[in-house]
Amino acid sequence: MTRTILEVDRLALVYTGRGRDVNAIQDASLLVKEGEAIGVAGESGSGKSTLARAVMGLLPPTTSRIVGGRIVVEGVDATGFGPSDWQSLRGSSVAMVFQDPLSFLNPVVRVGRQIAEGIALQDPHADRKARTRELLELVKLRPSVIDAYPHELSGGMRQRVMLAIALGCRPRLLVADEPTTALDVTTQGEILALLDELRRTLGMALVLISHDLGVLRRLCDRIYVMYAGHTIETGRTAQVLGAPAHPYTRGLIAASRLTRGPDGRFSTIGGDVPSLQQRITACPFQPRCGSAMPVCAEMPPFLDTAEPDHLGRCWLLTPEPGGAPALPPDTRASEARNVGA
């Protein structure tokens, strides 16, 4: 049986401060098995990056808190972990690369030293020089990059350096948050191909966060779609992108194709994302949905079965809209976690 690396079970998280909470994540689930590639899709503000930082323990405890659900990393419940507890998991269990490497690399420290420092944090006795050269070769950078400063490298090279740092302690899971957003099209393709090659070569799992559905289609085994802090659809990539169960997912796909409607306009999703300063108590997509029914404004839908291994959070998936949901309440969360198990 394939081992579970990461399990997020109905997570709810708020940002605090200035007298008002922001419900950044309200009901998000995620399951990552050893060696598989998972995609997380959604518009800006859907909670994708917050979820990524939550599973890395990178959210500041002074301005954020988990108010529901749990995060389990390799069988360890990390929901209540503090900074020192997370330090023991980061690197060896989970590692992360960000969309703007220049913001995360020290501009006055040579690249080789920054890679070596990451190695030393987890393994003080390692041969840092040899391991640094090994990592540069792994991400297809020449050895001379060791003596370079970040500003002397191209955007693609800096992202490869970030990958080398992330891989320094041989993580079982790599989280990549929009890793190609700031790169040109050619370099994007090279970095994505490298991510896929590294995942297969090293046997690690990958969580790829992107608003680009084409990228997720190319690399991912399964996809989770997020909207307003909720997981609203999940399934195998071919299911979610080939036969989407949720109106929001259908809207994302239509918009990504850049096709024009009868009026000559490009397809878009009308309306605005709901405010996250109040907890959503109905369907979060209802105000923007062309298929909305009265029940959508009255009760929140649950993740219900669209087809085997394919779930959607939509009242259209219930046998009788407004009636009993397709799955008993006590099985919905486990179904969401176990899709693709």
Automatic annotation (TrEMBL):
Q: Does the keyword Transmembrane apply?
A: no
Membrane topology per the entry is:
Peripheral membrane protein
Gene3D superfamilies named among the record's database cross-references: P-loop containing nucleotide triphosphate hydrolases
Q: Name one GO biological process term.
A: peptide transport
Q: Where does the record place the ABC transporter domain?
A: 6-253
Q: State the compartments where it is located.
A: Cell inner membrane
Q: Which residues, by range, are in coiled-coil regions?
A: none
The record's section on Pfam families has: ABC_tran (PF00005), oligo_HPY (PF08352)
Entry's Gene Ontology cellular component terms: plasma membrane
- Principal location class: membrane
Q: Which UniProt keywords apply?
A: ATP-binding, Cell inner membrane, Cell membrane, Membrane, Nucleotide-binding, Translocase, Transport
Cite the residue spans of the region called Disordered: 322-341
Molecular function in Gene Ontology = ATP binding; ATP hydrolysis activity
Name the protein family.
Belongs to the ABC transporter superfamily.
Name used for this protein in its record: ABC transporter ATP-binding protein
Annotated source species: Ancylobacter mangrovi
- Higher taxonomy: Bacteria, Pseudomonadati, Pseudomonadota, Alphaproteobacteria, Hyphomicrobiales
